[in-house]
Amino acid sequence: MITSALVLCVTVLCFKTYRRRQGLPPGPLCLPFVGTLLSAGLSQHPTDIAKLRKKYGDVYTLMFGSKVIIMVTGSEAMREIIIKHADSVTDRPPVSQMLQLNNGCGIIATSGELWKQQRSFALKTLRSFGFGKRCLEHQILQEVEIFMGEITKRGGEPFYAKEVLSPAFANIICSIVFGKRFEYNDERLNIVLRVINLDFAKINIVLRMIGMTLPWLRHLPGDITGFKQRMRYETEIKFFINSEIQRHKDSFDENEIRDYIDAFMLEQIREKNNANSTFSDQQLLASVRDLFIAGSETTATTISWALLYLMANPSVQNRMRKEIDDVIGKTGKPSLEHKSKLPYCEVVITEVQRLGNIAPFAVPHHVSDDVIWRDFLIPKGASLMLNLDSVLMDPITFPSPEKFDPERFLNEEGKCVGQNSFIPFGLGRRVCLGESLARMELFLFIISLVQNFEILKENDQSELSFEEIRGGTRSPVPFKVRFKPRN
Ligand code: HEM
User: Fold this and answer.
1) Whole-model pTM?
2) Which stretch is the leader sequence (predicted)?
3) Is the CB of 288 under 6 A from ligand 1?
4) What fold is seen in the domain 66-485?
5) First-residue to last-residue Cα distance in the chain
């Protein structure tokens, strides 16, 4: 009797689950309760994704419990969905962990009018502080000088590059949002950087998606989806940011806007009679937190990949150095104006970003209205995962995609080309808000390093590892590097 009831229940559930899949893009076997977890596994590895893509097509359906996740692979499908249906796929999932950690505020995880207002305020303000302009270039170059001073102190001995990369890039975003930089050994900064590092390196993005779609899991004993640990990390980060906000409140002068926090507080004053204003104190904390987190670890991780590829390819380094010497000289200061005159250096940076691909799944999007894509339904309420790997590692656009080959971006006239499929910053309305800052930082740091140092392996015998850690970002396993000053 019990067995028959059980069989009946399972059959009904299977049927319902199957019905739900009607019209959706195809996908692996979907079972009640667990969805496609058993058939598709938890792997985020490109080869596993490629297998699923080969079997089910560019757009396929995964299910966590009853939650529909649509995986989008390949440049064509991604552009068709993200650009053509932008009105329906620009939001973020309403139950994302990040949204909850930020009390529904911020930029990265918010949606609708709140997101629109806050993203546009952030872009406008950051532009006024020099995104893409000379004044910010000057600030970045100052940090480059300090960074190179730190490297020189190591006297050519091997050390973990991340030790100096993390505070250097955090300092650039700190200068923009807090109006100040920190010493590399500042205890408060280092606690926060350790926390961000741990958070980025250790999150399993699939477990996070599961936590996002099945939020009740966080109330179970233990910490299956890592939510409780993230809450602890967030407390540290917010404590740090709150102390900076307090410092600004104590010294605010609306006639002298020093940085992003001041600009936000000025906007709060301007909006004080607007009952629908989104410029709350919580929003200030959350957007500063988003800029700080998104702006520090991402670029530091990209430079880590650059160091690895440059150590492995001394001839590439030599060719870059020759180009830099010809254009800037051995002692001249690099500037963004040199960019168009350093095409080889530019394609090396492009290739590092293609292979480094530090955000292989971008940030999940939410489908706010049914989308008909080709003959399939991408249903309202689904989450959309953009697999940037599938574009950046596409063997048709980039033959032998795993090979480090900067020249693939160089045309016969020696110009940088082929950027259409180069989407490490994502695409569409949610494209990375810090793209122009990141591009400035990558250019100025990498050119300065190659101009001044030979970038060498720990020792001649050491083997380089290109193994990756897939967390919030995709980063290389920690490695040591030597910087030998040029004569
Ligand atoms: C090499 C460095 C970087 C890479 C590869 C990168 C990549 C990305 C990607 C893939 C997204 C998600 C796009 C999507 O949702 O479809 C994103 C979002 C974002 N990035 Fe970056 N990023 C980098 C550096 C930065 C920097 C320096 C900042 C600092 C201002 C920043 C701020 C943001 C913000 C605020 C968002 C959320 C935008 C939104 O939801 O509207 N990023 N980034």
Assistant:
1) 0.91
2) 1-23
3) no
4) Cytochrome p450 (1.10.630)
5) 86
